[in-house]
Amino acid sequence: MMGYVSYLSFFLTLALIYGIATMGLNMQWGFTGLFNAGVVGFFAIGGYAYAIVIGPDRPDLVGGFELPFVIGLLGALAFSALAALIVGLATMRLRSHYLAISTFGIALTIQLVALNFESLTAGNLGLIGLGRPLEDAFDTPLGFNLFYLGLMVVATLVVYGALQLILHSPWGRVLRAIREDEEAAISLGKNVSRFRLEAFVIGCSLMGLAGAFYVGSIGYISPFDFLPIVTFQIWTMLILGGSGNNRGAILGAIVVWGVWTSSGWLISTVLPPAWQVRGAASQVILIGLILVLTLLYRPRGLIGERVTVSSGAKLNDR
Amino acid sequence: MGQLIADGILTGAVLSLGAIGVTLTLGILRFANFSHSELVTWGGYFALTFIAFAGTSAETFGPLSFGWSFVGAIIIAGIATAGLALLVDALVFSRLRKRRAAEMTLVFASFGVALLLRHIIVLIFGPHAVYYTGTLQFAVEVLPGVRVMPDQILVLVLTLLFVLGLHLTLKFSRLGIAMRASAESPDLARVHGVDVRVVIRWTWAIGGGLAAAAGVFYGLTVQLRPEIGFALLLPLFTAALLGGSGSVYGAVIGGLIIGLSESLSVLIIPTGYKQAVPFLILLLILYLRPRGLFGDVAK
């Protein structure tokens, strides 16, 4: 019984962490129409930045500053924002597919750095023994899991509240104006590429923050936690949940992570070892199908964006 | 050094064939198709399937590692991959076009399609690297210190022939003129009686066929793996953007430049970072010359 509770709280913790990253993506795609094909790259930067800031001192490695948890989170935010700036400054003035390709490229590059820059990231061995926040205060794993879940609930609520606040401010309305009609926004005197860059950087920092929370929950980091499939998972979470709606982003994260973990469990228990790789492939195919089918048949997702119409306008065939 | 240049040109030839398809979809269908490089993988595996059924011919052509069955395999792979590209268009992209979905929705759908195509390969063929033949080939010294396989020389010659063929088609045939017109302005082309649907179909078929050739050549000179498409995605797009989207010659030159710089990069950076070279070039293009070498539209 306690095992189930412990597992369920761990499951929900990860789902909420992905939910934070999905809200970051929602800021970019759902509200501004920016296509980020390298979500996992920013997730990884956040994770590594956090690990290097808080990790124990290692004589043979750069980093390991043993700083507190909160400083680690700030480091994650700062470094993922910096990476976003490098890509963003190059692409925001251009047609949107340039951003898609560059973000894909930076994610690939970050993976290579994680694998090859051994004096910083310890290569494919990963950094272990990072310690988890307040871990010693709990006698049982269950206690820690519940504490961390509580922390993630608070973090999710804070991120959600902050995003609702800025997205419904004049700044957020400009983002949606850009998404709907870029030229109209320009003609109103809005500096479109600047707004885009801001939305892109904020979104990427949220992905970095999620990466830091992820590493904080498991206590180690390895390049194999940041495979390209994570990008697809987070995208599917957003599209299924309903792009343009942050509650949809959180819901999508929980549903898709549920589908992913339960199908993974099913495959590992039902299929013989020789078929495991093919089973893993069908797990990805399942995610891909959810993504494409939602796009084709329910573009609004489970709970899509609320249709907003200015007062006085007539509602026609909505 | 000489050897690195030779290897770079060979990689570049394969990249060029793939990048042509990317640049055609960018120019004519007006979206960045992230699933294009998966067609390269599928082309390679279609040929593998054909060889598995037809058997490898006992007789090989002179110093080459294959015989007649391989010629059949290239042709079948080209046709099958073109068919696959058309099928994907009918199932996904044409529906989105009909709904007048935004350009980025198409890009995004192509992401999902790429994921599906890649993992269906794993599902059918398994994750391991495979080869067309077990024949061992001896490299010949073409220049002092530069050794290449006879197969590689053939790949280079065939690539040149394909590019030349495409050039002549685009330049002189009615279809080619219609394709160029649609790339420039779909509406004007339609007014002049061009059936844009036919143009779109041929764009997929040509892009798919050339992707298949790239896949077969890659499989022949390197090996076949399900991740070929994923590994080629960034180099192909960088080649297409470097050349200027919509420009076939640009794609060819872009492919060669990317192939050469990847190959020569090992002189200055550790081999582990080789895959990041296209990304660095991409960033440079975006900062310095976003329309590419031969592109004409600024945005």
Structure description:
The complex is a heterodimer of chains A (318) and B (299). Chain A has one domain (2-227). In chain A, 70% of the residues lie in helices and 0% in strands. Chain A has 12 helices and no strands. In chain A, helix 1 packs parallel to helix 6, helix 1 (2-30) runs antiparallel to helix 9 (192-218) and helix 2 (39-54) crosses helix 9. The longest helix of chain A has 29 residues, at 2-30. Chain A is globular, with a radius of gyration of 20 Å. The mean pLDDT of chain A is 87. With 299 residues, chain B is an all-alpha fold. Chain B has helices spanning 2-29, 36-54, 68-98, 103-125, 150-172, 174-184, 186-191, 196-221, 228-243, 248-265, 277-288, and strands at 140-143, 146-148. Chain B has a two-stranded antiparallel sheet. The radius of gyration of chain B is 19 Å and the shape is globular. The model of chain B has no long low-confidence stretch (mean pLDDT 86). Chains A and B meet through helix 3, helix 4 and helix 12 of A and helix 3, helix 4, helix 9 and helix 11 of B.
